Amino acid sequence: MRHRLAVALLILCAGLALSPTALAQEGEALRGTLRGPDDKPVQGVKITVTEDGKQVGEAETSASGRWEIELPGPGTYDVSVDVDSLPEGLQLRQEGGETLSDVSVQPDQQRTVIFPLTTPGAGGAGGTGGPSPPPGAGEQDGGGVSGSLGRVAQLLVDGVKFGVIIAISAIGLSLIFGTAGLINFAHGEMVTLGAVVAFLFSTAAAGPGIQLIPAALLAVIVGGLAGGAMERGLWRPLRGRGTGRIQLFIISIGLSLLLRHVILVLYGAQPNSYADYTLQRALRFGPVSITPRDLIVVVLSFLALIGVGLMLQRTRIGKAMRAVSDNRDLAEASGIDVSRVILVVWVMGGMLAALGGVFYGLIEIVSWDMGFNLLLFMFAGVILGGLGTAYGAMVGSLVIGLIAQLSTLYFSVELQFAWALAVLILVLLVRPQGIFGRAERIG
Question: Is residue 21 situated within a structural domain?
Answer without folding.
Answer: no
